Amino acid sequence: MDRDHGGRDNALGSLDELCINTIRTLSMDAVQQADSGHPGTPMALAPVVYTLWQRFLRFDPEDPTWPNRDRFVLSNGHASMLLYSILHLTGVMAVDPEGDRLPKPAVTLDDIKRFREIDSKCPGHPEYGVTTGVETTTGPLGQGCANSVGMAVAGRWLAERFNRPAATLFDYAVYTLCGDGDMMEGVASEAASLAGHLKLGNLCWIYDSNHITIEGNTALAFRDDVAARFLSYGWDVTRVSDANDIDRIARAIETFQRTADVPSLIIVESHIGYGAPHKQDTSAAHGEPLGEDEIRLAKRSYGWPEDAKFLVPEGVREHFRQCMGQRGRQLRMRWQTDRIAYRAAHPDLAGQLDSMGRRGLPDGWATDLPTFPTDPKGLASRESSAKVLNAIAPRFPWLIGGAADLAPSTKTRLTFDGAGDLEAGSPGGRNMHFGIREHAMGAILNGLVLCGIRAYGSSFLIFSDYMKPPIRLSALMSLPVIFIFTHDSIGLGQDGPTHQPVEQLLSLRSVPGLITLRPADANEVAEAWRVIIGLKHQPVCLVLSRQALPTIDRARYAPAAGVAKGAYVLADSAESRPEVILIGTGSEVSLCLAAHEQLTREGIAARVVSMPSWELFEQQGQTYRDQVLPPAVTARVSVEEGSVIGWDRYTGSAGAKIGMHTFGSSAPIQDLMTKFGFTPDAVVASAKRQLARTKETTA
């Protein structure tokens, strides 16, 4: 139902108005002092955020990581001063990276004065891990919206798994503040569609409809009937026609709280830069301070001392403590009491919650990890990964995930008894269906992991392009999200160049903090999963093949445990030092082994290095790296069915790089391998040219 709680006749109570104007003036002053930022949205939406936090949000400033707190996501992150102001005024306390409370505020007045300065607790956009109380990093529009869907899914999953008739440990709500830009971004629409399908009654988006973007009025490019769109998604929609009417805002939130079976959208009509009568334009919203004269005019309209800067009047902090703070503390303490009783009644489940809270691992998770016998025909690494995943997941209860409609191809479905599907009527399922929504899938995974769940999502490697923003944000937030990408090369064959990844490995390797793993056979896959599960603060991309890869004879060659170091000597010569080094990843390692055997028969001392992960290799000490790739051996060949850019860091500037310099082609796999030079003969020929070059330079 589309309701209207419109009207402009509400008179703000004096103490309410004082608190709201404190949020506004702190935001204006911080932006002005930084000479950078977005004051308009904080000014316009201060009443909305005040009402939500003061009257409704279940959040204890003394314990801001309390697991059953309501989540507040500022998806329109350019309005960051709105969040920093409320974190300061409510007295939210800081926590350290391990989640332990610190005896200091998360945001001090001095922090606000240093808005957008180097190493500030108040950066330009909210950043998870930098500022306590920031639930997720929001900057690119739409990401916070999609993160919030993951948080809401997590809330329902946690409730289904851990709640018991006499103990409700999880029933939190997720509130997301978003704007016109979020509504234009496809990722928010993807996520909203899925949220409606899943009937996420614990999710509320508050949409600031102010009709302004950087270029001007939204009518330049946006005429959507947002209410109709969300009604079609299966959301409940409520309207508030004046962002200053806190009573009608409150009634709209109450409507959400009574709506348990579908997500809710509250459309709030606001005016950018409210209170700055001469600055009703895009500059107040997007990247320009108001200027001293306009700030004085705004403060005059509020009845504020015009020359006062960063003023927090007496009674404001106390008012927040007496309402929001007292309510949050009582709820949190009641929850802690219930958890003590829960621990006695359900010790195993309580232990799982403890592990989740510290990103720990369940005991015995690797007990059934398989090993694979030598097999010249082998398995596609997507197939061996499926076997490993289904060996781990039964012993890892909070490992859940799915695919963007490709689980039969990516082999990521959990098939053990009881895994089940995560749907509206079964929120505790372990298999999630994201639909053909790769971008939203990545952002939803971030939201799931932010709530303690270990989540994975899968697609084809080529579609990692659709997911780059959330992958980047996973790394920025140091979240151990698992991204599984199959169909990893031109080896997928006749689907052709639109589906054959060339530059995607390079793109993923360029992301700081992201680990990319491309295993060479089934046992490397198992070891890759051992690495993945052990990660606490890094996302990972597991890159797998469609075609079968020979399972390497580990009695003849080195064990796959070397995967943990990113690269290892798989095959070596009988000589004390090799003459030439062949470096491969994934399916190309078997080519290197075949070339090694041929070179060995010809009396050439060759070494094969399997390098599933550049990032893990770079984490090793220089001594180990020099053992694998001796600096004195300059005859080197890299072999990978992807862009050659970057491989010179391992081959040297004069080394040979067998890879892709163009897009692929539609043809059977063997024809492709021959056309693009991925054959043992081509590797051998390249190795010999490298040897000839080194002999010439040393002659």
Description of the structure:
This protein has 699 residues and is α/β, with parallel strands linked by helices. It has three domains: 332 residues, Rossmann fold (3-Layer(aba) Sandwich); 176 residues, Thiamin diphosphate (ThDP)-binding fold, Pyr/PP domains (Rossmann fold), CATH 3.40.50; 133 residues, Rossmann fold (3-Layer(aba) Sandwich). Strands 13-14-12-15-16-18-17 form a seven-stranded parallel sheet. It has a six-stranded parallel sheet with strand order 1-9-10-6-5-2, sandwiched between helices. Strand 21, helix 20 and strand 22 form a beta-alpha-beta unit. Helix 16 packs parallel to helix 17 and helix 20 crosses helix 25. The N terminus is likely disordered.
Strand order of the largest sheet: 13-14-12-15-16-18-17
- Text of the CATH class of the largest domain: Alpha Beta
Overall number of strands: 24
**Number of separate domains:** 3
Q: Quick one: biggest sheet? A: 7 strands, parallel
Count of helices? 25
Helix content: 40-55%
CATH architecture of the largest domain, please? Answer: 3-Layer(aba) Sandwich
Which residue ranges are poorly predicted, with pLDDT under 50 across at least 5 consecutive positions?
1-12, 275-285
Give the overall pLDDT as a whole number. Answer: 93
CATH structural fold name of the largest domain: Rossmann fold
- The fraction of residues assigned to DSSP E strands is 15-25%
The first-to-last residue Cα distance is 84 Å
Q: Going by CATH, what is the homologous superfamily of the largest domain?
A: Thiamin diphosphate (ThDP)-binding fold, Pyr/PP domains
- The rounded Rg comes to 28 Å
Shape: elongated
Computed structural class: alpha/beta
